Amino acid sequence: MSRHRKPRSQSNRQPQAQSQLRIIGGRWRGRKIAFAPIEGLRPTGDRLRETLFNWLQFYLPGSRCLDLFAGSGALGLEALSRGAAAVDFVELDPGAARTLREQLKVLEADNGQVHNCPAQVFLSQPGQPCNLVFVDPPFAGDLWAETLSALETSGRLAPGALIYVESPRETPLAVPGNWQLEKEKQAGQVKMQLFTRG
To answer: How many domains would you assign to the chain?
Structure first.
């Protein structure tokens, strides 16, 4: 780890050392946001976020969002920046959850709430239905099937809700039968899919 701390003069070329991401649109456009330097944490890159939020631009204003496996909070923070009414961030790692709370304070975003618990635990609890859900679990795990199934039965999806799923390109996804695929794109080894709940 010490290797990453020494070359400060080259920190602009080493995003892991900085542990920062840039919000790319909305009221916080261009703001750099810190996130916890946790092994395996993989914020959705700028190009993928640009594509995703182009898909979502007409749905975001006033929407209630859920960012499962929030990690850096890149997707939920981008949603808040672009007009989402509220975002629930669900993150298992205490360090990542703490850093995300700190960033929400810096941004004075009182419409973002961080839940430091497993996604399955959060989905098992009662709560308000959401219009938009981001599902981007760690690629090293195999959490898509159980998460999507739990999400459908959780009561957390409003009628007509949009569900964004990010997964490895070759990973087959089994989604609930009432979900319809609206958008799909592959970028390198990543597959992006946007579904509507019927």
So the answer is: 1
